[in-house]
Amino acid sequence: MEVINAIGRRKAAVARVYVKEGKGDIVINKRPLGEYFTLPTLQYIVKQPLELLGVTGQYDIKVNLDGGGFKGQAEALRLGIARALVKINEEDKAKLRAAGFMTRDPREVERKKPGRPKARKRFQFSKR
């Protein structure tokens, strides 16, 4: 089997995912999954599509992650893995979509507006 590639995005994070047959190694920016994402919840998020389809030990996954924070990166990686798995087997798409792993979360940070401290917050009003 050749290398299948896919891309996942979330907020400012971009995950370029390369999947090939192997023994289940996940390497992110040349570091193993447990070393890159130390929190077990983030490791769980990354592995969700693999566990849903029951293919956890079948594929080696190499990832280039860039931008954003660790939560956004984990969710971008989840989307990238799900997209790659669909390229490998088209019939898995319905299962992954039902679990919500095929949807790109479009929410982004709203820009700061001039004359305000944040995007929507206003400075305190003083009557006198």
Topology diagram in text:
Elements lengths: L3 E7 L2 E9 L4 E3 L2 E2 H4 L3 H14 L5 E8 L3 H19 L4 H7 L29
Parallel strand pairs: 3-5
Antiparallel strand pairs: 1-2, 2-5, 3-4
Characterization of this structure:
This protein is of the alpha+beta class. Helix content is 34%, strand content 23%. Strands 1-2-5-3-4 form a 5-stranded mixed β-sheet. A hairpin with a 2-residue loop joins strand 3 and strand 4. Helix 2 packs parallel to helix 3. The N and C termini lie far apart (73 Å). The model has no long low-confidence stretch (mean pLDDT 93).
**Helix amount:** 25-40%
In order across it, which strands form the biggest sheet? 1-2-5-3-4
Low-confidence stretches: none
CATH domain fold name: Ribosomal Protein S5, domain 2
Shape: elongated
CATH class: Alpha Beta
Key words describing this protein structure:
alpha+beta, Ribosomal Protein S5, domain 2, 4 helices, 5 strands
